[in-house]
């Protein structure tokens, strides 16, 4: 009886710990940013009495949160060992932080800084970077775990697609292991039925796929579906990839479709089997960073075409094998398991720096700064109050007398806050359902999503600001602003008008994020996380 009671008590504590971590993630992240800001202020000019009090209050909240989590943890010593970096970060401020920052300020202004001191500083920086490298987590074993998700539109196709997936695994395992020099394991996850057989966007499967990827956890995911896959411009193709999220997709409908007045292929046809294997290897090679080649140079990485007379699985060239084996240590995914909000933030940051190409490519493709043009609700919620504020006396008083530095800081913090609010309130981070495991490339995808929304907020800020500036220059009477009674100067130049427009635009972006929002699925489609096979 006591044993049953103890088990029930431990389960309650675990559920309480899980709910606590989920509920405190966003507020503790915000407090972390405030604490970081106070550290920077202390480094530059020192903290005032109020700021110093806020600093220690936040520090006390961090300590209280950590102690509460230790209390709720089932195995306290294991929890402390897993979160020793957090404990160290909480202890250091008591002894070092303030004094260290004061010392840095003194040394910065001292005249005896020599090249020897600079070399020592660089060496310390290298040790610091090495510590950050350790924070990424242990290097996974050189083995690839591949998850396969089947999305079917009709019940009778479920087993047929599962058999297609088993045959595909049998065909591609050996070429992949031979090319990379590491073992590959495949797992067919629980299939999922679609509501209709209408064409889908690749991003429509992102929620389910990212959740399965975290549940595995898997190093890569493949979606096999019988419905057509189409781009935003309604271009249908057999295969799509997301190098940023490490997800591939294959549409069997495109593989079995033939020309007019010709019979359809069957999934068990030999031609469909080997063309599917060729397409799969092409998509995986694309995710792993192999370059596309002209037709004839590579049977896999040249542009994929369905060849009815294909009778075998193609092989990678020796140059492609050399490139894959050179990077095999980086293929398996790193993972963050049950991290706090701060640890999750650091993990996202480190993974983004580790994969700059995968991060930047979708940002360049999606033209996120123009995204507000496709989000009428967000734009309306930002522009409408801005017009009202433009004709409000108090907004002139504040905007005209505000220092440029304050206006810039207010704009930067507002845009960052608005973008973070939009991403979290719309649940754009992957996986969208709660999960205690985060894989490396899902972290990169999350960073891409946030930066895209951040750029979109910048685009919204520029759009509203230019509109307000146009009103000030060409709609207002020429001497209206110059005769405003609360101004400290009689001459109003372009800088004053730009500052006023920027201040109004900043308020507009904030209200747009709070009141407007957008349809999350439509936004994900615009972020260009997936590409057609080339």
Key attributes of the depicted protein:
Collagenase (Catalytic Domain), two-stranded antiparallel ribbon, 534 residues, alpha/beta, seven-stranded mixed sheet, single chain, globular, 18 helices
Q: Detail the poorly predicted runs.
A: 95-135
Question: What distance lies between the first and last C-alpha atoms, to the nearest angstrom?
Answer: 64 Å
Pairing-aware structural class of the strands and helices?
alpha/beta
What is the H/E order? HHHHHEHEEHEEEEEHHHEHHHHHEHHHE
Describe the structure.
The chain has helices at 2-44, 49-72, 76-82, 84-109, 115-135, 158-180, 206-215, 252-256, 270-287, 318-326, 341-354, 356-366, 376-390, 393-401, 404-425, 440-474, 494-516, 520-526; strands at residues 144-152, 184-188, 192-193, 220-225, 229-230, 236-237, 239-242, 247-251, 335-337, 437-439, 531-532. It has 3 domains: 2-135, no CATH class; 144-330, 3-Layer(aba) Sandwich (Collagenase (Catalytic Domain)); 337-529, no CATH class. α1 packs antiparallel against α2 (49-72), α6 crosses α9 (270-287) and α16 (440-474) packs across α17. Strands 1, 2, 3, 4, 7, 8 and 11 form a 7-stranded mixed beta sheet that branches. The longest helix has 43 residues, at 2-44. It is 60% helix and 8% strand. The chain contains 18 helices and 11 strands. With 534 residues, the chain is of the alpha/beta class.
